[in-house]
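User: Here's a structure from my thesis project, written as structure tokens. My advisor, Dr. K., wants to see whether a designed sequence matches the one we expressed. Can you design one independently, without my sequence as a hint?
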């Protein structure tokens, strides 16, 4: 009886299970048919769409750029400089360079490359962002020649079908020829022939490998990688192209390395005949739009671009250029030293003013110049300390130390004994700053700086920023004025960092909104730590190294000066505005004794007085909690304290440096060559100076660059 019942139950269970599976399978087939039908209908509609007909009857229209108040500040258009050439006139090395860097399977696929798409998707997922595209050369031609730059699924499907159609109708050589005559190279140059004339003053058929590699790297971001705008970035991009050519067998290793080092002979750029208001800002906005939508969209499709610029502040910023002395004129006819100034609203990230130089070139030092920050980096060490139970009253012993042969010194050459963290900030003391960074681990200041928007750290390789010299601003590369100014905005905004914004919204010629930007923010440090740091940096202006920046209202800031006076900074803020000023020579040679507490502080003061003139003065607000169990005094590592005999030797060395031997110390700086400074002499470690330990979980990561 029991056996019979069990058997019956098993049969019913098996029957019901089979029925359930059949229902699920049937439902799945219905869904598949529906999706297939919808997809086919969508693709059919896309194939039958002829987007070029509508675009062909629209005449080209200039784009307008507006300030924060809706006033037009620029009318952007370009006379198209295009000179088509036959593929036979294009050097084989230039063809190979484009194929290697843009579409290495160009001669194998049929217009769309599934392997390339999969590789790009995998790379972007791993990098948590869009760092690589999967479009083929044929797809790029289809998009640039026949479609708008609108980023929609419909446009992408149209691009795919147009690419397949192009591959059916034309040979690979014909497609490559059309592509090379179509793409934009910056400076108003469309196509390889116009680009060859613009950059090298010669026909495309006369280009050598060095020039071919340079040209092939420009279309990724035409304004940024233009060697007339940013030679260093263009050289780095050229190296990437050569590496790709070597990888895919077009050249050998020795040729690639030799060409990377080859000198580039460029046609001198025509200097601007006038200094239009906000020219650097307008160029920067234009560059960002071209990178996103393409040159044709910006120059021909009549966009309306609403920006964050405040024209009153911009005029105040440009007026400060007159304070710059002229010590020399460089080979490009530019007066030196140059300067950069950026002003940002720390609460929404809006860039209110931007000066990228004296106004007679296209190299925007505010966004492109990567320079050593010197002591302007120290607040990142201080904020890391405050986040780790230090207080402004924590005591640090300002005494000699030896860290594997590196003996950092203060600007005065003297030691002050026990000092508070507040005094360290006020007088920009080097040795206590190093001791703090050593105690915390240099990865913590780097982590906080990254979270506040500094993207230029080098974290791997033989020369990297994981060394104590970074605490004194001795970075491998440096920082840009835009990024360090934005980072200081975190302190003014109660520990919340807001990414800088220059474009509020973009409309097409019909008024359709193409993009509308909202502030992107994240909390980086506690409100208490930000308030305490601000209180310390107020002392810098009141009675420290930055007294020339005093504007007669609550303000906080920090000076920075690098070795041999190569770079001078002042970065500071009021409760509602943060501004950064950099002064230096373009070629990284010394200025004539310009220090951060002098000319940059004076420029900052002159700008901020005008920029805040219509705003009532107010105090910084921010809660400060009591530090129970905080660090009262930083204990010295007695193993690294110098003995009396060592101190005497150091005294002799200091005397020798006063006789002009400081330059010899620079030769031993790993990575950065601007570390010993008036703010921090001998700031970089000698060979063998210690690297800090690997970051703790959640700390410095490889992917942040």
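Assistant: Designed independently from the structure alone:
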């Amino acid at each position: 009886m029991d056996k019979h019942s069990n058997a019956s139950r098993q049969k019913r269970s098996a029957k019901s299970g089979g029925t359930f599976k059949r229902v699920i399978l049937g439902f799945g087939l219905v869904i598949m048919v529906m999706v297939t039908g919808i997809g086919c209908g969508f693709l059919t509609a896309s194939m039958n769409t002829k987007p070029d007909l509508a675009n062909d009857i629209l005449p080209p229209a200039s784009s307008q750029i507006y300030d924060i108040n809706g006033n037009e500040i620029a009318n952007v258009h370009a006379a198209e400089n295009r000179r088509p050439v036959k593929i036979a006139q294009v050097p084989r090395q230039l063809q190979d360079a484009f194929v290697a860097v843009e579409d290495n399977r160009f001669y194998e696929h049929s217009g769309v490359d599934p392997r390339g798409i999969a590789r790009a998707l995998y790379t972007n997922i791993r990098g948590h962002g869009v760092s690589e595209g999967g479009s083929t050369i044929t797809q790029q031609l289809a998009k640039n020649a026949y479609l708008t730059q609108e980023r929609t699924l419909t446009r992408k499907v149209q691009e795919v079908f147009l690419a397949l159609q192009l591959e059916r109708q034309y040979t690979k050589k014909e497609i490559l020829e059309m592509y090379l005559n179509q793409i934009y190279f910056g400076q108003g140059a469309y196509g390889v022939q116009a680009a060859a004339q613009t950059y090298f003053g010669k026909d495309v058929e006369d280009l050598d490998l060095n020039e071919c590699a340079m040209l092939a790297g420009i279309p990724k971001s035409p304004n940024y990688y233009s060697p007339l705008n940013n030679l260093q970035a263009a050289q780095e991009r050229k190296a990437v192209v050569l590496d790709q050519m070597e990888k895919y067998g077009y050249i050998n290793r020795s040729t690639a390395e030799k060409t990377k080092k080859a000198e580039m002979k460029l046609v001198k750029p025509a200097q601007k005949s006038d200094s239009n208001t906000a020219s650097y800002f307008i160029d920067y906005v234009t560059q960002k739009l071209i990178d996103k939508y393409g040159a044709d969209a910006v120059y021909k499709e009549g966009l309306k671009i609403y920006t964050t610029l405040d024209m009153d502040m911009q005029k105040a910023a440009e007026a400060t250029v007159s304070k710059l002395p002229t010590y020399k004129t460089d080979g490009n006819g530019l007066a030196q030293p140059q300067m950069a100034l950026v002003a940002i609203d720390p609460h929404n990230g809006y860039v209110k003013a931007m000066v990228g130089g004296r106004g007679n070139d296209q190299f925007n030092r505010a966004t492109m110049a990567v320079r050593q920050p010197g002591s302007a980096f120290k607040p990142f060490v201080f904020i890391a300390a405050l986040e780790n139970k230090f207080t402004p009253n924590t005591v640090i012993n300002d005494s000699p130390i030896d860290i594997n042969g590196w003996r950092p010194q203060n600007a005065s050459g003297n030691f002050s004994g026990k000092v508070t963290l507040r005094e360290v900030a006020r007088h920009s003391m080097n040795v206590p700053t190093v001791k703090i960074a050593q105690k915390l681990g240099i990865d913590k200041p780097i982590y906080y700086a990254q979270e506040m928007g500094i993207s230029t750290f080098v974290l791997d390789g033989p020369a990297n920023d994981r060394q104590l010299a970074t605490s004194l601003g001795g970075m491998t590369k440096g920082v840009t004025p835009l990024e360090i100014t934005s980072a200081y905005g975190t302190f003014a905004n109660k520990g919340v960092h807001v990414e800088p914004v220059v474009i509020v919204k973009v409309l097409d010629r019909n008024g359709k909104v193409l993009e509308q930007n909202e502030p992107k923010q994240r909390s980086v440090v506690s409100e208490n730590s930000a308030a305490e740091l601000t209180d310390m940096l107020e002392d810098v202006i009141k009675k420290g190294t930055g007294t020339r920046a005093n504007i007669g209202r609550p303000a906080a800031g920090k000076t920075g000066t690098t070795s041999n006076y190569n770079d001078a900074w002042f970065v500071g803020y009021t409760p509602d505005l943060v501004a950064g000023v950099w002064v230096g020579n373009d070629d990284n040679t010394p200025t004539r004794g310009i220090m951060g507490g002098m000319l940059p502080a004076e420029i900052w003061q002159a700008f901020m007085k005008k920029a805040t003139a219509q705003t009532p003065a107010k105090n910084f607000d921010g809660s400060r909690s009591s530090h129970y169990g905080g660090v009262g005094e930083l204990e010295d590592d007695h193993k690294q304290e110098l003995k009396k005999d060592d101190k005497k030797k150091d005294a002799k060395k200091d005397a020798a440096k006063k006789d002009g031997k400081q330059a010899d110390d620079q030769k031993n700086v790993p990575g950065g060559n601007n570390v010993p400074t008036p703010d921090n002499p001998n700031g970089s470690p000698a060979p063998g100076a210690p690297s800090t330990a690997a970051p703790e979980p959640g700390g410095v990561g490889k992917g942040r660059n």
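When you compare it with your expressed construct, this may help: The CA atoms of residues 200 and 267 lie 5 Å apart.
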